[in-house]
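Notebook entry, structure prediction.
Reason for the run: the old model in the group folder had no record of what sequence produced it. Starting over properly, with the input documented here first.
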Amino acid sequence: MLKQRLADMRDYMESDEAAYDEADVEECARILSEHATATRSVTDRKDALELVRGTVLRLNKLDERCDGTLIETDQRETICTFIIRTGHLRGFNAENEDVTEPWREW
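New structure, fully documented this time:
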């Protein structure tokens, strides 16, 4: 699903409305990959939420730099699900708990 949303970002780049390029899509993918990798090292909920906070703030900056066009509704839902599920699989949050919401601007 995440790969599809990244592909959707690339497809949208073809429109005149996109204010981002391939490097921005790659940065988004890298941020999410780094989040998943870092989650394996976290040992408690407090640290997991701090990791989520950092990831969301990085994504906020990236999306802002792209004039808010990088993370659209479908991408937002997929990215949130990815972050939530990553924490849930390690037991840090409930599966339906949107841990991104306090910091998310996209």
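Summary: The chain has a mean pLDDT of 95.
The old model has been moved to the deprecated folder.
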